[in-house]
Write a structure and sequence with these properties.
The protein has 260 residues and is of the alpha/beta class. The chain is built from 8 helices and 7 strands; from the N terminus they run βαβαβαβαβαβαααβ. The chain has a 7-stranded parallel sheet with strand order 3-2-1-4-5-6-7, sandwiched between helices.
Length: 260
């Protein structure tokens, strides 16, 4: 199977590390011209140096706590450079904790960083996708949209909102050759997972290794995912090979989620 993303422009959010970085590398390996987005310019430059140098890859420095600034920067970039065939919405998850004790501000901040920013990015990129008759919007969310995860109350809530926004958008944009899908990572070897393990350890009194082992044992595969394994799924959904896959939630979790 040839995914062939040559001459496709992709914008990848949260691409300075973890799943976002792995996705940028994977898309570029298939021929896409990638624009990285994150708030740390030095990390963006480091990732940029790892992308194939014979293509004009680029980056945008933006903070997802400020949707208006993000919108302005991306729209300005598109006006001066080019639009995008592929949008990968990906940003760090909210802090853990029980939903009952969460502050209202935590919901507001997470809603801003996830749903609002996804929305302004979609609005900025879809006109070009329509003109090209080709578009892929891929949202990196969480398996919690199928089965809420203990101790991640704010995340469970906001991820569900993003999933339903995505499904609605898929219904509206499908007629233009644009697909909108969600990739649902399970426990994946990123900084976010390290943070979750530390929190579990602090709450249970178990060592971090014991907490990690318990999480691994909850997965039929008995291991954590590598960021590249998520990136491969995202890259497939970004390709023409996935042209008739639209409006789905795709768990990439080693079989951990118990629901179908």
């Amino acid at each position: 199977m040839n995914l062939d993303l040559n001459n496709k422009y992709a914008i990848v959010c949260g691409s300075s590390a973890g799943i976002g970085k792995a996705t940028a590398l994977s898309l570029a390996a298939e021929g896409a011209i990638v624009t990285l987005v994150a708030r740390n310019e030095e990390k963006l430059k480091a990732v940029l140096s790892e992308l194939p140098q014979h293509r004009n890859h680029d980056y945008i420095v933006a903070d997802f706590s400020n949707p208006s600034e993000l919108k302005e920067k991306v729209e300005s970039y598109i006006e001066k450079n080019h639009g995008f065939h592929v949008l990968v919405n990906n940003t760090g998850g909210p802090a853990g904790g029980p939903v009952f004790s969460a502050k209202v501000e935590e919901f507001e901040n997470a809603f801003t960083q996830h749903l609002k920013c996804n929305h302004v990015l979609a609005q900025a990129t879809v006109p070009f996708m329509k003109s090209e008759g080709y578009g892929r919007i891929i949202n990196v969310i969480s398996t919690s949209v199928k089965q809420p995860l203990d101790g991640l109350g704010v995340s469970n809530t906001i991820r569900g909102a993003v999933a339903n926004w995505s499904k609605t958008l898929a219904n509206e944009l499908g007629q233009f050759g644009i697909t909108v899908n969600n990739v649902l990572p399970g426990a994946t070897g990123t900084e976010r997972l390290t943070e979750i393990i530390k929190n579990k350890s602090a709450k249970t009194g178990k060592t971090e290794e014991e907490s990690a082992d318990a999480m691994r044992n909850a997965v039929p595969a008995k291991r954590f995912a590598q960021p590249e394994e998520l990136a491969y799924a995202i890259t497939f959904l970004a390709s023409d090979c996935a042209s008739y896959i639209n409006g789905i939630n795709l768990p990439v979790d080693g079989g951990r989620t118990k629901s179908l």
